[in-house]
Amino acid sequence: MAEISAPTTVPDTEKEQKPKEKSRPDCGYLVICWNDPVNLMDYVTHVFQAVFSWPKAKAERHMLQVHQSGKSLLVRETFEKAEHYVHQLQGYGLHATMEREE
Amino acid sequence: MKFVPAPNKDAPESVVIFRINAREEALLLAMLRLYPVLENSHHRISQDPKAAASAEQRLLEESMGQQRAAHRRKVDALFQTPQRFFKEVLGERHLVLTGAQLEWLLQVLNDIRVGSWVRLGSPDLEKPASLQLTRAGARSLQAMQICGEFQLALLEAVK
């Protein structure tokens, strides 16, 4: 991810929550965003906020995970919803894919 | 180009305003003429190589094609009626956008930025010394940088 403007690191104050979807048998698709050196960090944060209606802190945390770890698991969803999110994220130019959960 | 915050913070933010000079306006229009740059086949639904021939992959490419056609129509509308977007206010040139227009402009500029990077061979931008630039490559690099600057200016308004 291109580092034109450095984001503020936000303390991870949100409680870790086990995803509710995990217990749902139909939520077997992972939406993953992969790192690339071209999308701007502020832009990626904005896209996560726009697509998932996430608060800025959560969007930034996932953006930083993409940047530092190479990828971030964004949501675990049904096939249809995962496909919908991938279309939206790719419409914004992000490198996002849906992968079947092993 | 610089975001101009609304004077009254309680006012409904139906439009966002950017101060823009003549050179920046010409640059922005020159960039928009390049759209679209990314190919529909650039998009991948999954990392799994078996998905490349899937119906979902075809659907993604169709969807991206439709979105680009819709964005292209909006870019054309901007060229046909620039006075809807660029206004002279008290001797200053302003770019005036609704929230929806700002969103598509961000997407269009990012398409040009990412597409230009792909045309450059998807280089690691942290090692610019590795770039062997042709004349076309230099144009792509320039487009990438200019679009990035406009994106950052637009993002100031959504912060």
Question: What is the topological layout?
Answer:
The complex is a heterodimer of chains A (102) and B (159).
Chain A: E1 29-34, H1 41-52, H2 56-69, E2 71-77, H3 79-91, E3 96-100
Antiparallel strand pairs in A: 1-2, 1-3
Helix pairs in contact in A: 1-2
Chain B: E1 2-4, E2 15-19, H1 22-32, H2 55-80, E3 86-89, E4 92-98, H3 99-119, H4 135-158
Antiparallel strand pairs in B: 1-2, 2-4, 3-4
Helix pairs in contact in B: 3-4
Largest sheet of chain A: 3 strands, antiparallel
Q: Determine the most extensive contact between two protein chains.
A: A-B, 24 and 33 residues
The CATH superfamily of the domain at 36-100 in chain A appears as Ribosomal protein L7/L12, C-terminal domain/Adaptor protein ClpS
Order of the strands making up the biggest sheet of chain A: 2-1-3
Strand-residue proportion of chain B: 5-15%
Low-confidence stretches of chain A: 6-23
| Order of neighbouring strands in the sheet with most strands of chain B | 1-2-4-3
- Please summarize the sheet with the most strands of chain B: 4 strands, antiparallel
| CATH topology heading of the domain at 36-100 in chain A | Ribosomal Protein L30, Chain: A
The end-to-end span of chain B amounts to 16 Å
- Spans of at least 5 consecutive residues with low confidence of chain B: none
Average pLDDT rating of chain A: 85
Secondary-structure element order of chain A, N to C:
EHHEHE
In total, how many beta strands of chain A?
3
| Percent of residues in β-strands of chain A | 15-25%
Question: H/E series of chain B, N to C?
Answer: EEHHEEHH
Question: Could you say what the CATH architecture of the domain at 36-100 in chain A is?
Answer: 2-Layer Sandwich
Instruction: Give the tally of structural domains of chain B.
Output: 1
Q: Any idea what the radius of gyration of chain B is?
A: 18 Å
- Mean pLDDT metric of chain B: 92
Helical content class of chain A = 25-40%
